[in-house]
Specification:
This protein has about 250 residues and is of the alpha/beta class. Helix content is about 35%, strand content about 25%.
Length: about 250
C-alpha cells in the first residue's frame, strides 16, 4: 500500500483557559488527500483544536508540524516570519461565515488574495470568478452578504478560503449556523472537494456526513481523543464504550 505523505502532525497538544483544561495531550496525524472528521460532544475541545492549528489560540505545551514546517515544538513557537508562512498552509472556514458586510461577494474573495498573496487585481478577479462558478454563485458576484442566504454566504466563505490556495482546509461546524434545508448544499460542496483529494479537517455534528466523507475519524470527549480509526470502524464497530454511547444517539 502506498505510504501517504503526512501534512499535519500534532503531538501531546495541551491547552487550558485558566484552571480549565480544554486539550489534555492530543496527538494525531493527517495524510495528504485525506479527510479527517472530528466528532464528539459539545465542549470536548474540537473547535479549540482547530483554533490552535490556525494560531488563533496559543498552546501551552506540545508540538505541531504543518506541511513539514515546525510551528511549535514542546511549547516553543517558531519566529514571527516562519509562523506567517506556516499560517498560509491552512484555510479555515468558520461557523458564522465572517464575510465583510461592506464588500461585494467578488470583493470578499479578491481582497484577501491581493493582501495576503500580493497578486494583481486582474489575477485575483480571475480566481474569484472561477471559484464562484465552481460554487454555482456566478450571478451573485456583485451582491452583498446581507442579500444572500446562509448557505450562499457559507459557499462564498469556502471560495474565499480556497482562493488563498491552502494545502489543508479546516471546517469548524460549517453547517451549524444554517437552517436544515440549507445544510445539504454545503455538504455537497465539501464532498466535491473531497473527491478532488483536497486535504481537510472537518469538525461536525452531522454524523452521517462525517461517516460518508471522512477517511479517518477522531472521537473526542473531555479534551481527549477517546478513539480514532477509519470511518467504517468508528461508526460500525466502535471499540470504546464512550464512543458507543455517543453514537447511539444518532441513527444510521
Amino acid at each position: 500500500m502506498e505510504q501517504l505523505e503526512t501534512v499535519i502532525e500534532v503531538k501531546n497538544l495541551k491547552k487550558s483557559f485558566g484552571s480549565l483544561e480544554i486539550l489534555k495531550g492530543v496527538s494525531f496525524e493527517v495524510s495528504k488527500g485525506n479527510v479527517l472528521g472530528i466528532i464528539g460532544p459539545s465542549g470536548s475541545g474540537k473547535s479549540t483544536l482547530l483554533r490552535c492549528l490556525t494560531q488563533l489560540e496559543k498552546i501551552d505545551d506540545g508540538s505541531i508540524t504543518i506541511c513539514h514546517d515546525t510551528m511549535v515544538k514542546d511549547g516553543v513557537y517558531a519566529g514571527k516570519d516562519e509562523l506567517k508562512k506556516i499560517g498560509r498552509h491552512l484555510g479555515l472556514v468558520f461557523q458564522n461565515f465572517n464575510l465583510f458586510p461592506h464588500y461585494s461577494v467578488l470583493q470578499n474573495i479578491m481582497d484577501p488574495q491581493i493582501r495576503v498573496l500580493g497578486i494583481s487585481r486582474e489575477e485575483a478577479r480571475k480566481t474569484a470568478e472561477d471559484l464562484l462558478k465552481k460554487m454555482d454563485l456566478s450571478e451573485k458576484a456583485c451582491s452583498y452578504p446581507c442579500e444572500l442566504s446562509g448557505g450562499q454566504q457559507q459557499r462564498v466563505s469556502i471560495a474565499r478560503s480556497l482562493a488563498l490556495k491552502p494545502e489543508v482546509l479546516l471546517f469548524d461546524e460549517p453547517t451549524s449556523a444554517l437552517d436544515p434545508e440549507l445544510t445539504g448544499e454545503i455538504l455537497k460542496v465539501i464532498k466535491s472537494l473531497a473527491k478532488e483529494k483536497m486535504t481537510m479537517i472537518v469538525v461536525t455534528h452531522e454524523m452521517a456526513f462525517a461517516r460518508d466523507i471522512s477517511s479517518e475519524v477522531i472521537f473526542m470527549a473531555n479534551g481527549n481523543i477517546v478513539e480514532k480509526g477509519s470511518a467504517a470502524q468508528i461508526f460500525k464497530a466502535p471499540k470504546e464504550e464512550r464512543t458507543k454511547v455517543f453514537l447511539q444517539r444518532f441513527s444510521n
